[in-house]
Specification:
The protein has 543 residues and is α+β, with helices and mostly antiparallel strands. The chain is built from 13 helices and 19 strands. The strands form four sheets. The protein has a six-stranded antiparallel beta sheet, sandwiched between helices. A six-stranded antiparallel beta sheet has the order 9-8-7-12-11-10, sandwiched between helices. It has a five-stranded mixed beta sheet with strand order 14-16-17-19-18. Helix 2 runs antiparallel to helix 4, helix 9 runs antiparallel to helix 10 and helix 11 packs parallel to helix 12.
Length: 543
Amino acid sequence: MTRQQLENLLRRKSAEIAALREISRTISQAHDLDTTLTTITRKTAEVMGMDSCSVYLLDPQGEYLVLRATTGLAPEARLRLGEGLTGWAALHEQPAWSSDAPSDPRFVLLPETEELRFQSLLAVPLTVGGRVLGAMNVQTRTTHEFTEDEVELVSMIADLAGGAIEKATLHDHMRRQIRELSTLAELSQTLASPLYLEQVLQVIVQMAARMLEARLCSLLLVDETAGLLRPAAAHPAGEAYTERAPIPLGAGIAGRVAQTGEREVVPDLLAEPRFSDPEFASREELRSMVSVPLRVRDRIIGVLNCYRGQPAAFSPADVNLLTTLATQTALAIENANLVMRSAVVREMHHRVKNNLQTIAMLLRLQLADGREPSGREVLTETINRVLGIAAVHEILSLEGFRTVNLREVLDRLTHAVVANMRRPDLDLEVSVQGDDVYFPSQPATSAALVATELVQNALEHAFRGRTRGRLWVRLVDTASHVVLEVEDDGTGLPEGFDPETCSDLGLRIARTLVREDLKGELLACGGLGARFVVRIPKEVLGA
């Protein structure tokens, strides 16, 4: 070897050592995995004069090499272990190279990476402690014959990179554990906070998405009566997801989890025939999924799903973490339901007590009345009042325990009272009209009793000696009041009639309820026959 060759060799080795020193110093300053990988690919391509450098890491299942960092390829790609020159290098733990990579029999084209721009490729395994982490490669646009020195240099860089990747992975793992513990502590506080169940579920899916770094997390609850799985909360899709159609138990991935109680991990949604909505997955860029049941003892009450944008993205640790979260969530839902059922029972007892007291008050008023009605008359009037109260609570039992549509109540009680009091010889046309106005249960009960007295009063007095008649009940929603009208086309009111001084028991009851319970006023107006108007201020409704 001549002196000149020795000098050239010395300069090349010095350059390689300098490059290794620079790469070592640069990657030692990185802590998290993404920064470390980006630094490795950038500095390797720079010091070696390559057009591209890429790092592939094994997925948690050890089946695929996933492209994690690159300077020249499109970012979405994965190879089976042993597939392509890069997969071959990782599987056999030795370098693989070709000056004309597309013609090499080991080469596998990944169209999504736009790899056809490159001609030559050198791949080396990434290992640490005898364990394969993945592989890295360098590529050139023009034909390039890789020398032994270049192969050795890339292999040495890979050795440095393996240790840095291991350290960064441990750093990320520790940081993730801290985040998970913090999130679980935050979740415990949330579950103990005085939030409505809907708010708790929304917070849970937000925490799950954050903790697992998921593109989407959703929670669905089992409707045992209908045999369906209904969306209850999602992040970040929110209402766009919860308004989707329910899933029959046993159908699709989530429906099967709800039916069997077995968790499911789907590496690639687009290749999974059981997934019910591939268009949704494609639109939201969802590729992999894990679904775990919400279990309370031996009963499945729902399903918790998480999605990521990369195939085969969920590790066993991810699945175990989501299972832990699902267990806490199921207990929170069960506790919330127990609290709600307890509150419902208390509310029912409270309302029954209040309604019985109201009926007792009405009977005392009837007992104190100076007239001597027949027993049949007393029973009929009492039945009508009970029917008025029952109409309120029938609708409450169907629609919930908060508010009731007063127009529906008026429609039911009017027809019930008319049916209870109608004379066989009277052809009566009944009409209930007006706006949908929602009342809390107590004001609704008082308004229903007022309407009962006014309808009962019309049936008793308006159509004496008549064989035909009409009765209207109207509800009008104005800016400041709710107006209830009861009008008939009967004989009309006596001259000088004043509802405030009238001694009729029914009108006295209506007047008392309007003034004391509804804080409103009762008016008598002229019309086709008699027209009574009740004005109820909206403050009574909390509006």
